[in-house]
């Protein structure tokens, strides 16, 4: 059961659409059939109910009972169906003082508007056929997008890029299904049937498409939640110092004692239009300390999930060979796993240029920094941004960023893989068709083909008030 | 002169007969009215029953307590289980039948049914009072009263037969058409339409040269349709024969196109795409240089031959000239030409799931009048209309079947929800849960349900209960019966499957795709695990349930999940006009169809998934 569907009826809803708190301006949005009847009673200026859509009115909000003027405002008028919710709607720009906002909203509510539930504007837009389910979810992503790249991705989904890819996929699948059905229902007819190899090829190409969408999820997820960057290295290499320097605040506890960081510490920051999630980790070493050992194992887990690893080396050592060996030992398995690794040499200000040359010879890509003294950080962030950007989707790429979508894709993939296995094992067509129908069903779940209450409830509860 | 009946059935074809028999067997007093007592149970087109998806329907009718399966078994001249290589959901029984014996058997069965009266007359109208049907008017001037009326007029309503440029009224070759009913129903507010179908020429079998054709014999071990012991499998099967058209045939047929009622636009009704006339085939698939022809015997005591695949309405001299160019037909003598027939139908979206019309209470429609084609589809609707006419006449709750319960459920739901533009024929692909709707389990699916409403007999019910119990027991036993490598491996080697190293259960062996129940049974007999052979239908049932356990389970889960949408009911008075956010088309279709559930709404053609999501929000708010 949707938690707030009882409110959806024909009420007129109102909410603050800008972030709460003090600001220069605040925008209050009202939508529903009584929008203009309510506004007419409080607006002193040109009558809002006579204003055409897409116009802006200047005037004052006045309490009709006390005749007190609450604020000087601009009203943007929208006429059904040309508004976000496809209903009559207005946006009132007032001054961004919490007191004013509260007074205006309670006045509107007194005259018949009701406070909107989280996501209710978008729920109405969906209900009125403005979006399909995947697009409505993209709106939520758009609102929550914190970087340009994430915004671009959400925009592309809202415009239906993802839905288009899915329906292309669906059509291909329907084509495949119809080849199977042909054989089943018309086996007695004198027609040519697709041979098994063609069917396998077709299924293979479908699986490749779905696989591509699924693997785009890690990119999509990174864009939404920040590209995971793990700072790893031996204890006391200066990882926490680097985290603090990148975030420009004392986020992690720093000391000279190796093993100070026992758990992972993370925080996000936007660099070059991309959101990064930096993860400081416990230093990697053999330890008998139970807590530290748990930290080390968590570090390894985080490195698994990371997209980029900043591997830090403490350059202040006399045993150059050992350090080079350590770096190589760390790098080889990570590169083998396909991780992007940036080798960072720390404490550069304490090392002679002759020694530096030695390291640079061993590792031409080594980035030299001093986390403590903010040396070389610009070079490091530039390198980080370019590394990640290489793997960014272009604007036309469709990227899956929603967990529900990727789960449905995985289920569809599993169903089709069963069909492919079935094809190899000579499974009969009736059961092949069953797997294919299940695949279609799961794809349909994304665009809202077969939607359940729980699903909708889940989706719409993600929207914050006013949107 | 007539008493008031509980149920009056108009028409004695496959739909009318099943309707009359079901209602009478449930205890209604029934009158069956037909224009001609000698053509009861006619096979108007090919002399065959069943086939892919259709065979499943015949078995469902039988499981419900209908007669089509019994009549078919008693008059079978050839039996084949189609699609044997395609998995249990696709196995489809099909029989060739003796046309004359089939009709005779139907009449015999009906005459043996208690509570059932007959009257030969043409029904020209209905007696309707306060939107409720209370009887019929006949051509002989009788008013006959009944609590409910089932119309099964087939192709007879304003039937118009075309052969070349000739056209004449008729419901079937040499039988006159019926009029009056369509006009009255339209006046009552019903929408009517026209459909077209056709039939091939009939040939003198003595004039054919079978040496030039390919023989198609019946199965070596023929089965049958009815689950009951009152019928037996066919003995002394007759063969069918296969031959092909060729370019010369096509060229001759083309010379008749100018006089073809199909191409000159004289035929207005839409014909079936999957059962086209031969002129349609060569016109639409010009690149195909030959088409298959099945040569089917019409019976044991006749030389008449049915030329399946050569349905045509071209002038008879063109038919004759073209057919003689088919290998084996060089000297063919025609008994009668093929023809096309146009007839009235009522778009079935005007019906409820019970097949009662939405407009007139007590009036039920079944068969070709609803835009379907096929004896099986007609019979399936007939039995459901008969059951529901009886139930209504006795103020009892209606009886309907879901899409996951029966092909008959799929058929009726498709018809009343989507309607149809061309004669509707069942395909397995129309059933989303076809692996559940198999010919081997129609009795398990339906006999209990039918017994509960008083149609399926005690005997039938006891039989299916015993089958269910024996199947469960056998599956349990197979899990206990152990076999050693020494015993099993020679057999496994013979099959060409991997040998075993340790003692294992027979259940594990039967799970292998390449091990069948026969091999298991032989082993069990050879090593004294069982002393008697297993009952065929029990071992078949167990084998399917074991081998496809995972798939069937998954399908069941999916069916249950979708039935959640079936459970979201829509109030019949719901005002779709107030949903401004869906397309005009969707709004109109929903207002017209008045779906009873969200699931049914989702199946209406032209209704998009987004419409359903929006509808869901509106239903709940």
- Side-by-side strand order of the widest sheet of chain A: 3-4-5-6-2-1-7
Q: In DSSP terms, counting alpha (H) and pi (I) runs of 4 or more, how many helices of chain A? A: 15
Largest sheet of chain B: 7 strands, mixed
- Major beta sheet of chain A, specifics? 7 strands, mixed
What is the CATH C level class of the domain at 5-132 in chain A, in words? Alpha Beta
> Quick one: which chains have the greatest interface?
A-B, 45 and 42 residues
- Please identify, by name, the CATH architecture of the domain at 202-339 in chain B: Beta Barrel
Helix content of chain B: 25-40%
Roughly what fraction of the amino acids of chain A lie in strands? 15-25%
CATH architect. name of the domain at 5-132 in chain A:
2-Layer Sandwich
**Overall pLDDT level of chain B:** 93
CATH topology of the domain at 5-132 in chain A: Gyrase A, domain 2
Low-pLDDT runs of 5+ residues of chain B are none
Structural class of chain A: alpha/beta
Distance between the termini of chain A: 21 Å
CATH H-tier superfamily of the domain at 5-132 in chain A: Probable tRNA modification gtpase trme, domain 1
Measured distance between first and last alpha carbons of chain B: 57 Å
Q: What is the tally of beta strands of chain B?
A: 22
Short synopsis of the structure:
The complex is a heterodimer of chains A (467) and B (621). In chain A, 47% of the residues lie in helices and 17% in strands.
Write the layout of secondary structure elements.
The complex is a heterodimer of chains A (467) and B (621).
Chain A (H helix, E strand, L loop, with lengths): L12 E4 L6 E9 L3 H8 E3 L9 E8 L6 E10 L10 E8 L1 H13 L3 E2 L4 H8 L5 H12 L3 H11 L2 H25 L10 H30 L1 E7 L5 H9 L17 E7 L2 E7 L9 H16 L2 E7 L5 H17 L3 E7 L6 H10 L4 E2 L8 H13 L13 H22 L4 H18 L6 H8 L7
Parallel strand pairs in A: 1-7, 8-10, 8-11, 11-12, 12-13
Antiparallel strand pairs in A: 1-2, 2-6, 3-4, 4-5, 5-6, 9-10
Helix pairs in contact in A: 4-5, 6-7, 6-14, 7-13, 13-14
Chain B lengths: L4 E6 L3 H12 L4 E5 L13 E3 L3 H11 L3 H7 L1 E7 L9 E6 L1 H13 L4 E5 L2 E7 L2 E7 L4 E9 L8 E4 L2 E4 L11 H7 L5 E7 L2 E3 L9 E3 L23 E5 L2 H9 L22 H7 L7 E6 L6 E5 L7 H8 L10 E3 L2 E7 L17 E3 L9 H19 L13 H12 L23 H11 L5 H23 L1 E2 L1 H11 L8 E2 H5 L6 H10 L9 H12 L1 H19 L16 H10 L4 H5 L6 H12 L1
Parallel strand pairs in B: 1-2, 1-9, 2-6, 9-20
Antiparallel strand pairs in B: 3-5, 4-5, 7-8, 8-9, 10-11, 10-19, 12-19, 13-17, 13-18, 14-15, 15-16, 16-17, 21-22
Helix pairs in contact in B: 1-9, 2-9, 2-11, 3-4, 6-8, 11-12, 12-16
